[in-house]
Design goal:
It is built from 4 helices and no strands. With 97 residues, the protein is mainly α.
């Protein structure tokens, strides 16, 4: 019972940490984009449609979040699970002999 509670607690905090980190990275990217737009001249700004800027800050960020960061964290999570499972199995195997 205690182990199940601990693992649920650990999974919750890992998920919260992952989402906060992803949101910080997305915010940093948005700040960079807005900073680049802010230094454009009026003529430079008008060369690109305003819908494109809006898309960069909304739709493209959503795709980066879903297809990029979430996938990377899933791979890291699965890799760490494999490593820890291997360690636990090797320790259990050593105890049996």
């Amino acid at each position: 019972m205690g182990l199940r509670f601990f693992l649920t607690w650990l999974d919750y905090f890992e998920t919260v940490y992952r989402e906060r980190t992803i949101q910080r990275m997305i915010t940093d990217i948005r700040v960079d984009i807005v900073g680049e737009i802010g230094v454009l001249s009026y003529e430079g700004y008008e060369q690109v449609k305003s819908e494109t800027y809006s898309s960069w800050l909304t739709n493209d960020m959503k795709r980066i979040q879903e297809d990029g960061f979430t996938s990377i964290y899933s791979v890291i999570d699965l890799g760490s699970q494999i490593i820890f499972a291997t360690i636990v199995l090797s320790l259990c195997f050593q105890r049996s002999y």
